[in-house]
Write a structure and sequence with these properties.
With about 300 residues, the protein is mainly alpha-helical. The chain contains twelve helices and seven strands. The strands form three sheets. A three-stranded antiparallel sheet has the order 5-7-6. A hairpin with a 2-residue loop joins strand 1 and strand 2. Helix 9 crosses helix 10 and helix 9 packs across helix 11. The longest helix is centred in the middle third of the chain and has 29 residues. The protein is globular, with a radius of gyration of 20 Å.
């Protein structure tokens, strides 16, 4: 999703979710460490490297970055050679195929910085949008079967048995050859996309959930409130405060917020010292919840 949002910045759609583009573009002007990466991905003339669109979804961003850092050198080389067939590689992507640790670490750091600006502040609305789509597709599959599910995914996706057609600026054929197809929903602000490697062990279709009003309406409200709370507490700390509304252990809150457990632990300590959360021990696990002051602060935003 993070990578697809970068592509969306390069080709914004004239929809009500344009406020996401405006907000992120404005905030990225101050995130100098992420700018080369975003610029490079937006400048690609062909497919995005498959290792940036892993089908092995982790529990949070740090899990995803660990997978990125452990990508075999041969895979990096194959991905970048395939992308290079479509045109010259932008500067920040040229040295990735060498597999040097410092290069991948810099890439992971840039993705982490971009995520904090472009995805994390909007996660509550994004999560609500994707959850609504999961319920919808589950119902369609149960009532109408696979063919009806594929026929109704998105207006730009057409099921013409036995072929699934996807409108895309990249003309490429994928043959499943008996492999399953993983459907990965994404917000209507982000583009539909098929990763570039047709021989991937897990072929994946990243599709838009459509003109999803849940995301558009909640984003309009939540973006303003989250940004205001983020300015007060810092975006990471604000995210932890929000997920504390449902309560949970440190690891559980890390999963919900997309932050590493160590980062969440630091934020929890600060929030507890500020009198915004309460922590109790349940066996060997520490359980965190909002207290009255934290609840009032969150409701106010």
């Amino acid at each position: 999703m993070t990578t697809l949002s970068m592509l969306s910045l390069a080709h914004p759609k004239p929809t009500p979710v344009g406020s996401w583009h405006r907000t992120v573009r404005s905030n990225l002007r101050h995130a100098h460490s992420t700018r080369p990466l975003v610029t490079a991905i937006c400048a690609l003339d062909g497919p995005v490297p498959a290792f940036l669109l892993s089908s092995r979804q982790g529990r949070n961003l740090e899990d995803e970055l660990e997978q990125l850092l452990s990508t075999p050198r041969r895979t990096l080389q194959d991905n970048m050679e395939h992308v290079a067939d479509w045109g010259a590689l932008p500067g920040p992507l040229r040295h990735i195929a060498e597999g040097r640790g410092e290069t991948l670490q810099a890439l992971a750091g840039a993705i982490r910085g971009y995520y904090r600006v472009a995805v994390d502040p909007h996660w509550p609305a994004l999560h609500a949008s994707l959850s609504a789509d999961l319920a919808k597709q589950t119902r369609t599959l149960r009532e109408g079967g696979v063919e009806q599910l594929l026929s109704a995914l998105h207006p730009r996706i057409r099921w013409r048995s036995p072929v699934l057609e996807v409108d895309s600026p990249i003309d490429i054929d994928h043959r499943l050859n008996g492999r399953g197809l993983l459907l990965a929903p994404g917000p209507s602000a982000f583009p539909s996309y098929v990763p570039c490697d047709p021989l991937d062990d897990q072929p994946t279709l990243h599709y838009q959930v459509g003109e999803d009003r849940t995301f558009q309406e909640r984003a309009a409200v939540q973006n303003d409130s989250h940004l205001a709370l983020g300015k007060l507490l810092g975006h990471g700390r604000a995210a932890v405060l929000e997920v504390c509304a449902e309560g949970g252990s440190t690891s559980r809150l890390a999963e919900r917020s997309g932050l590493s457990p160590s980062t969440v632990s630091e934020h929890l300590t600060a929030l507890r010292h500020a009198g915004l959360i309460s922590t109790v021990s349940v066996g060997k696990t520490r359980h965190h919840t909002l207290n009255e002051l934290g609840t009032q602060l969150l409701r106010g935003h």
